[in-house]
Each structure stands twice: as C-alpha cells, then as structure tokens.
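dumping this here so i dont lose it again. seq + smiles for zinc ion
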Amino acid sequence: MTKVRFLGGCQQVGASAVLVEHQDARVLMDYGVAFKGEHRTPLPTSTRNLTAVLSHAHLDHSGSLPLLAGSHTQPIPVYTTALTRALTRLLLKDMLRIGGETLPFEQQEVAQILSNTRALSYNQRQQISNKVFVTLRDAGHIPGSASILVEIEGNGTGPARIFYTGDLNTRNSQLVQGAPSLREIGELDLVIVESTYALTEHPKREDVEQTFIEAVLDTLESKGTVLIPAFAVGRAQEVLSVLHKHRSLSTDYPIYIDGMAKAVTKVMQRYAHSFTGGTQLQQAVEYVSFVRNAADRRQALREPAIIIAPAGMLKGGSALNYLRAIADDKRSSVLLVGKQLAGTPGAELLETGSLLIHSKDGASQRLHVQSEVKAFNFSCHIDRGEALAFLHRVKGNPKIVTMHGEADACNYLAETLQEKFGFNAEAATKGQSFTLN
Ligand SMILES: [Zn+2]
C-alpha cells in the first residue's frame, strides 16, 4: 500500500510539500515556504527513513528544507539537479542573511541540508529503497527545474507510479525548452499538477517579446532609464536573453544588472551546458555590466540604460533604490515582467501609479511615480489550455490532484478535468491523504 499525503501548497501558492510513503520508505517532494497567509510552512513530518527530492530552487519549494535538519544524527538525503543544488545554496544563504533571527532555523541547519544534497541528471533513475525509485524529468520552468516521477515496484496488487509536475512550463522560453509530453512517461496512477495559472490564457510569447522590446526602445530613445524589477532566479536571466535576442535593435545602450540577480546569473553561467538557453545567456552576459558599488549605481542612472534589479514585486532589493531615483522622470519607465500578487507594492504601483515604501525603522513613505509603468506576461507556468493539453496526453487512468494555485484555480482545474476528460480529479487540502492500491 502506498500513501500520499499533502503537507502544504494546497489551494495556495507557497509552502509546497507532498509526502509519499511505502513500507519503510518515505519520499518528500519539495518542502517550501510561503511569504504571506496563514500557511507559511508545510505540516511537520518525521525524518525517519526520509528522503527529500527537490523540484527546483524557488523558495516556495525549497525554503523549509532546513527545518528537516537538526537533532537526529543521520542527515536526510536531498536529491535534485546540480544546478538546482547550486541555486538553492545561494537562496537559502540569502534567506538567512535577510531573515536572521526571525527564521525558525540557523546557519547550522542550512549547512547540514546543503552538505547532504546530491545531484541527479534528468532521467537518471535513483533507487531510494528496496522498491522505491525516483526520476527527475525536465519541467521547462527555470534552468535546473524538474518534475518528479516516483515508482514503487511490485506494490502488492501491482506497481504504483506517481508524477508530481512541480512548477511546469510546456512552451519554450529563451532560457529553457518546454517540458516533454506526459505520454513519454508511460502509465501513471496519480498525477499531482500545479494550478498557478489554471484560470488564465497567456498571450503568445513572441507578441509579449515584441511589445516589451518596443517599450524598452521608446524609453531609451527618449533618453530615459528602463528599470526592470525582476525575480532574481529565472526571470532576470530570461530578460537578459530576450534583450540579447533583439540586440540588433538596441546595440548602443548599456545593460546593468544588480542585487541577487548577479550571483544567480553567475551560477547559471557555470551550468550553462545543462540548459538549452545556456549558450545564449553566456553571450548575453558579455554585454552586461554587473553593478559593484555606489559609483556603478550612479553611472547606471546617468545615461539612457536598461537596469535589471530584484525584487520582482518591488518588496525590497535594489529595484526600490533605482525606482526612487527615476520616480520623477517622465522619460523613464518601469517594466514589470513578473506576476504582481495582490497586496504587493508592484501591484499597487500598477494600479495606482504610487506605492508605499517601508523602511527598516518601521517608517513608511508614499512614492508617486511619474515614469511610465507597464506589465508584461513572461510567465514560466502552464496556463489553462496548456494544463489541459498536457494532462490529456497521459497514459493509464490516473487520479489527478491539483495544488500550487489559489483555491479557485485548483478547484477549476480539477472540475474541468473531471467534466471534460472524465478524470477522477480533485483539489488537495492541507493534511489530506490518498491511498494507492
Ligand atoms: Zn517556481
């Protein structure tokens, strides 16, 4: 008998965690963190016979892993791709630096998790116990990202095969190729699918790139600064690659990159061989200035230039400093390239043209932005149509469970799969368990 338990990421984006148990083997897929809402961390789990498998580096999948370290003498093994291991190292250390004493773990726990993280290649079948195997499959989300296949052999009434998509993208981006079809995986008994954009249809990627490049050029030609607040892991590098692809249009204008996006870009350069857009990213970086100090920052603002800086939703980071500097300049623009969750400064800026900035001493100040503000959909998640197309190709007659989305998105996807294709589908709730066979 195989039991699957949903520990987090249920009807929410954040704190993803799913546990598969078979006899003595326990496989934990992701252990993330959420930055808002009541369910910040997944449910706790015993570390006895536990093996963790990490889909990708984003903290909503990796940020609670250090909670699994600690008093027990035998550290738990964590499997992921080599690039995700390197990126997770960077992100967990940054989380420690920013969160400090407010975090429920310390440097020691982070070090223990990192020291026991082992790299797997895509499609390499790793034995976890006598009968349990895991395989990472390219998920097309960001460089290094993976979906996870758990196979349990000879499971009483037959083998059980479980596929967890993690964050999934089936269309090509500049950085990574879309995930391969589910058909290639063979018959499945359970599919756990992300639902982030289950209520949305994304525009065509080429159209988004085109309007984005036009907006960039408009600003540069009017001698303004283009500020691109971008998530440090994935989106910043995607934007660099998009700019490089259209470089013939903007050859003379400098591009600067600042904040965490610098270190992440350097890690991705080291692993450029491991993802399709790696070579293009390498070439793009040759034209990019990495901001090192205040003098570089001043220089970036002195001339018409493109500045890429986290945080993507303007919750902090170097993007805010640049925004303060250009806020009064009507020639400049702020191009938002990631989802702006409701309640974030980025969403507020987009809706009202101003945002509230909180400083460390607790004071807050409203910043009115005269520069043009625009948003572009560079999503690296499947949308409604892509989710349905992906799941429609599945072999076997698996149960489908939706997670990693707001409640209405998770429920909508489950209901549609049931009505359209006759799948036994439902949206997971936190703490819920399913038994296979
Ligand atoms: Zn992600």
